[in-house]
């Protein structure tokens, strides 16, 4: 044997006869003539029934299988539902004397018991949800077959062969990639693990190729569109490649639980060179800033061709790409946002904020953080691995935060289990439970080194959890799917259950903690446009008959949306006199000159207010994030909008800052209308308007969405969008 062929043999391991079969891309060679023994000299394969052609009926099959939107030349069907093909022979088929069958193969080492080699004999009747074929029509030399796939079969790209039995051996069709068939999950099929019974929800969670990302913060919710683009050219192949990259055994690819688990690891580049490299430090050298992406298609296609992590992403980018992957394979999925999301480093349901002597947060000792918002995904499926009642929406998260079983991944965790505190059920339920349920504890170190609790805030974290409405662009609140009403009996019970199942909860039965109950303190931040001054109003309500004085400290910090501080730009201390039974308000003005030079991507501030009541020594503490209003892009269209005809789109933007914007990048995309286009502008002087005109030819009629973003170092997260109706030609 020559050296070269020897090297191609994969290394065997001692425990299995065949190497692992974990690539959908690799193939084995299938013999066209498989002899039973010695072949007699007069044998001529042409004397027997022979396949001349196979017709895949792509159009009619794909309409019935809800796969007609995929931009792909090969047949795409969903499992557990029948589809039609036609086989043309060299002569009429005679069931008495001729015998043939179909073979579907996937991967390099097809085996029948692993579901990677599927022989299908022709039967009289099809059983729902099981592999089978029956003849529905015979005419001249052709037969038409109805083929049923199993409702649990592997999801991926199969190769099709037709085999004919002769007395001396099996004759097969030659390898023909035109008959390759993709089989996907089927939310329309009751036996499928991802079955979803509501047609409007299936249209949203499987077939909608654009969505909404909610960001900003709890007091100022912002939204932007995201193009999922799951039907665009090469995206399905890119998604199948992700499973190859994750080395998921082909036999496990019919199981949505396994697929979600490995995908949540491969979406991020930590520990496996996955799709997206995260960056949260405001420096995006040699890459695209996370806020510049308008959708998933560019990211997936770049990864599919380069096989290297795409730079850069933050939580909504990981979640947007994950959503594309899930919908593309046919798993119902939605992107959700949790406002005031806890990142609890030691999962003890308690975020520890250490205060220094002045009453401000000590950033060196405080390791936990509250993200203004955090996006993850939910995927819909049954959970046969858990007790009854924990199927339905499962939380999955591709953003690398903490390791799970040694890798950066999270989920699938049953949302129902999280709500009831049953966090013992796999995977990563305690982490998600902490993200939506932690308490914020303000601690101070006493002179003798002990920690004294100064204040506890039980309602700040996980105040609002939202997703896009079904069929509309509005916001749907789903907080009660994750937690009971704050302070209710059920909520206490769920917490006790979570603690019983091993979520660490430090007891605060600390005798030294007795809060000041007769004074309330809160503050409001005025809504402000980027580049303008605004004010913070601090209000005290004294509910007692005593007169108090409060030494009050306001700290204004520029933060990443993850709640991590970049720097403190405002310090203000004042003394407040609190009269009995009355309220007093104090204004602090924030000037644009104080914050503009240090502003980060998301124009995000975080204010801490701590007040020491001088008469009692007790501390009141509260915190709030706020986001500036960022101007939007305007998108307009001109002329008729008809599929297959050229149309014109313009994007406009006026610079609101008191400075010139430099090295500005614009992006524009719209699934079914135009592929992503980019344009660079060297400068936009202050108050001047930029206009960019683009010509395109839409290829799909119907309601479509155009999405644009603008990015430069001084200004990020500038978006615009427009709904347009493309007419049929």
From TrEMBL:
<keyword id="KW-0106">Calcium</keyword>
<feature type="active site">
    <location>
        <position position="315"/>
    </location>
</feature>
<dbReference type="Pfam" id="PF00927">
    <property type="entry name" value="Transglut_C"/>
</dbReference>
<dbReference type="InterPro" id="IPR002931">
    <property type="entry name" value="Transglutaminase-like"/>
</dbReference>
<feature type="domain" description="Transglutaminase-like">
    <location>
        <begin position="307"/>
        <end position="400"/>
    </location>
</feature>
<keyword id="KW-0007">Acetylation</keyword>
<dbReference type="GO" id="GO:0046872">
    <property type="term" value="F:metal ion binding"/>
</dbReference>
<dbReference type="InterPro" id="IPR050779">
    <property type="entry name" value="Transglutaminase"/>
</dbReference>
<dbReference type="InterPro" id="IPR013808">
    <property type="entry name" value="Transglutaminase_AS"/>
</dbReference>
<feature type="active site">
    <location>
        <position position="374"/>
    </location>
</feature>
<dbReference type="InterPro" id="IPR008958">
    <property type="entry name" value="Transglutaminase_C"/>
</dbReference>
<comment type="similarity">
    <text>Belongs to the transglutaminase superfamily. Transglutaminase family.</text>
</comment>
<feature type="active site">
    <location>
        <position position="397"/>
    </location>
</feature>
<dbReference type="GO" id="GO:0005737">
    <property type="term" value="C:cytoplasm"/>
</dbReference>
<keyword id="KW-0865">Zymogen</keyword>
<dbReference type="InterPro" id="IPR036238">
    <property type="entry name" value="Transglutaminase_C_sf"/>
</dbReference>
<feature type="binding site">
    <location>
        <position position="437"/>
    </location>
    <ligand>
        <name>Ca(2+)</name>
    </ligand>
</feature>
<protein>
    <recommendedName>
        <fullName>Coagulation factor XIII A chain</fullName>
        <ecNumber>2.3.2.13</ecNumber>
    </recommendedName>
</protein>
<feature type="region of interest" description="Disordered">
    <location>
        <begin position="1"/>
        <end position="29"/>
    </location>
</feature>
<dbReference type="InterPro" id="IPR014756">
    <property type="entry name" value="Ig_E-set"/>
</dbReference>
<comment type="subunit">
    <text>Tetramer of two A chains (F13A1) and two B (F13B) chains.</text>
</comment>
<dbReference type="InterPro" id="IPR038765">
    <property type="entry name" value="Papain-like_cys_pep_sf"/>
</dbReference>
<keyword id="KW-0963">Cytoplasm</keyword>
<dbReference type="GO" id="GO:0005576">
    <property type="term" value="C:extracellular region"/>
</dbReference>
<keyword id="KW-0094">Blood coagulation</keyword>
<keyword id="KW-0012">Acyltransferase</keyword>
<feature type="binding site">
    <location>
        <position position="491"/>
    </location>
    <ligand>
        <name>Ca(2+)</name>
    </ligand>
</feature>
<dbReference type="Pfam" id="PF01841">
    <property type="entry name" value="Transglut_core"/>
</dbReference>
<dbReference type="InterPro" id="IPR013783">
    <property type="entry name" value="Ig-like_fold"/>
</dbReference>
<dbReference type="GO" id="GO:0072378">
    <property type="term" value="P:blood coagulation, fibrin clot formation"/>
</dbReference>
<dbReference type="InterPro" id="IPR001102">
    <property type="entry name" value="Transglutaminase_N"/>
</dbReference>
<keyword id="KW-0356">Hemostasis</keyword>
<comment type="function">
    <text>Factor XIII is activated by thrombin and calcium ion to a transglutaminase that catalyzes the formation of gamma-glutamyl-epsilon-lysine cross-links between fibrin chains, thus stabilizing the fibrin clot. Also cross-link alpha-2-plasmin inhibitor, or fibronectin, to the alpha chains of fibrin.</text>
</comment>
<feature type="binding site">
    <location>
        <position position="486"/>
    </location>
    <ligand>
        <name>Ca(2+)</name>
    </ligand>
</feature>
<keyword id="KW-0479">Metal-binding</keyword>
<feature type="binding site">
    <location>
        <position position="439"/>
    </location>
    <ligand>
        <name>Ca(2+)</name>
    </ligand>
</feature>
<dbReference type="InterPro" id="IPR036985">
    <property type="entry name" value="Transglutaminase-like_sf"/>
</dbReference>
<keyword id="KW-0964">Secreted</keyword>
<dbReference type="Pfam" id="PF00868">
    <property type="entry name" value="Transglut_N"/>
</dbReference>
<dbReference type="GO" id="GO:0003810">
    <property type="term" value="F:protein-glutamine gamma-glutamyltransferase activity"/>
</dbReference>
<dbReference type="InterPro" id="IPR023608">
    <property type="entry name" value="Transglutaminase_animal"/>
</dbReference>
<keyword id="KW-0808">Transferase</keyword>
């Amino acid at each position: 044997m020559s050296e070269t062929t020897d090297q191609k043999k994969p290394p065997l391991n001692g425990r299995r006869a065949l190497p692992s079969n974990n690539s959908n891309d690799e193939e084995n060679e299938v013999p066209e003539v498989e002899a039973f023994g010695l072949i007699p000299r007069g044998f001529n394969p042409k004397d027997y029934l022979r396949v001349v052609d196979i017709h895949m009926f792509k159009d009619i099959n794909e309409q019935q299988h809800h796969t007609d939107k995929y931009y792909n030349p090969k047949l795409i069907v969903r499992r557990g539902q029948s589809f039609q093909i036609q086989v043309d022979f060299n002569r009429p088929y005679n069931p008495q004397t001729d015998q043939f069958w179909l073979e579907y193969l996937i991967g390099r080492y097809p085996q029948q018991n692993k579901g990677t080699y599927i022989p299908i004999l022709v039967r009289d009747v099809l059983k729902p949800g099981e592999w089978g074929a029956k003849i529905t029509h015979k005419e001249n030399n052709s037969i038409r077959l109805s083929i049923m796939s199993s409702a649990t079969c592997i999801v991926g790209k199969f190769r099709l062969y037709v085999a004919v039995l002769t007395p001396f051996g099996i004759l097969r069709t030659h390898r023909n990639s035109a008959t390759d068939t993709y089989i996907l999950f089927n939310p329309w099929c009751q036996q499928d693990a991802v079955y979803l019974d509501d047609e409007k929800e299936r249209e949203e969670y499987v077939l909608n190729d654009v969505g909404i990302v909610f960001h900003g913060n709890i007091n100022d919710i912002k939204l932007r569109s995201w193009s999922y683009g799951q039907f665009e050219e090469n995206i399905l192949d890119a998604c199948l490649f992700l499973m190859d990259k994750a080395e998921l055994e082909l036999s496990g690819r019919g199981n949505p639980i396994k697929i979600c688990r490995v995908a949540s690891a491969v979406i991020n580049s930590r520990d496996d060179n996955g799709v997206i490299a995260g960056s949260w430090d405001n420096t995006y050298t040699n890459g695209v800033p996370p806020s510049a992406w308008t959708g998933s298609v560019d990211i997936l296609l770049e990864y599919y061709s380069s096989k290297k992590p795409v730079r850069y992403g933050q939580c909504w980018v990981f979640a947007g790409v994950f959503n594309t992957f899930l919908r593309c394979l046919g798993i119902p999925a939605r992107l959700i946002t949790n406002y005031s999301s806890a990142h609890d480093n030691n999962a003890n349901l308690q975020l520890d904020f250490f205060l220094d002597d002045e009453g401000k947060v000590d950033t060196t000792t405080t390791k936990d953080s509250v993200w203004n918002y955090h996006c993850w995904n939910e995927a819909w499926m049954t959970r046969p691995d858990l007790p009854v009642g924990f199927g339905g929406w499962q939380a999955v998260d591709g953003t690398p935060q903490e390791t799970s079983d040694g890798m950066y991944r999270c989920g699938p965790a049953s949302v129902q289990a999280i709500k009831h505190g049953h966090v013992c059920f796999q995977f990563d339920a305690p982490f998600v439970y902490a993200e939506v349920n932690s308490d914020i504890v303000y601690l101070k170190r006493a002179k003798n080194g002990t920690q004294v609790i100064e204040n506890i805030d039980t309602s700040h974290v996980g105040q609002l959890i939202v997703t896009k409405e079904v069929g509309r662009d509005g916001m749907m609140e789903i907080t009660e799917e994750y937690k009971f009403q704050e302070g209710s009996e059920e909520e206490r019970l769920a917490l006790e259950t979570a603690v019983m199942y091993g979520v660490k909860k430090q007891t605060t039965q600390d005798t030294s903690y007795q809060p000041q109950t007769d004074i309330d303190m809160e503050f409001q931040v005025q809504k402000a446009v980027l580049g303008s001054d605004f004010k913070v109003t601090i209000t005290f309500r004294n509910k007692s008959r005593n007169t108090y004085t409060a030494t009050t400290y306001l700290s204004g910090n520029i933060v990443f949306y993850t709640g991590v501080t970049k720097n403190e730009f405002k310090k203000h201390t004042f003394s407040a006199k609190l009269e009995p039974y009355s309220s007093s308000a104090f204004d602090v003005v924030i000037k644009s000159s104080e914050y503009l030079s240090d502003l980060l991507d998301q124009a995000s501030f975080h204010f801490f207010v701590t007040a020491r009541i001088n008469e009692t020594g007790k501390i009141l503490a509260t915190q709030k994030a706020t986001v500036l209003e960022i101007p939007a892009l305007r998108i307009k269209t001109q002329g008729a909008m008809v599929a297959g005809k050229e149309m014109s789109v313009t994007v406009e933007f006026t610079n609101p800052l008191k400075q010139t914007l430099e090295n500005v990048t614009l992006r524009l995309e719209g699934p079914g209308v135009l592929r992503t286009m980019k344009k660079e502008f060297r400068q936009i002087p202050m108050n001047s308007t930029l206009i960019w005109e683009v010509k395109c030819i839409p290829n799909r009629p119907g309601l479509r969405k155009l999405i644009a973003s603008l990015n430069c170092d001084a200004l990020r997260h500038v978006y615009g969008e427009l709904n347009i109706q493309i007419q049929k030609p």
